[in-house]
Design brief:
Layout: H1 2-8, H2 11-22, H3 26-31, H4 46-58, H5 64-71, H6 74-84
């Protein structure tokens, strides 16, 4: 029974529930951040960079390459789009310019 439940549970969906319950203003806070990067070098919005790093930290990732490989899946991208109310189709391992 545990094995069946484990296969049906989406950890990022569970994280979304926790974020909504305990950090309801997180999305507003991320939306109000000022992006001081030179806009000609920007590939991704600051909010996708920040949320990706938060999720990687919560998941104990230590490598940008592993984050890129594991997070560049339909499930993760859909969950990130759900959290941020965006429409990304891919997450790359490019270094973010802060």
């Amino acid at each position: 029974m545990r094995r069946e439940r484990k296969n049906t549970v989406n950890p990022l969906e569970e994280l979304l529930i926790i974020i909504k319950q305990y950090f309801p203003k997180l999305n507003d806070w991320i939306d109000n951040l000022t992006d001081n990067r030179h806009q000609s070098y920007v590939t991704y919005d600051l909010k996708i960079c920040l949320l990706t790093q938060i999720l990687a930290f919560c998941s104990s990732y230590q490598s940008m390459n592993k984050i890129g490989r594991d997070f560049n899946s339909d499930i993760v991208i859909n969950n990130i789009n759900n959290i941020l109310k965006t429409n990304y189709t891919e997450i790359t391992t490019q270094r973010y310019t802060y």
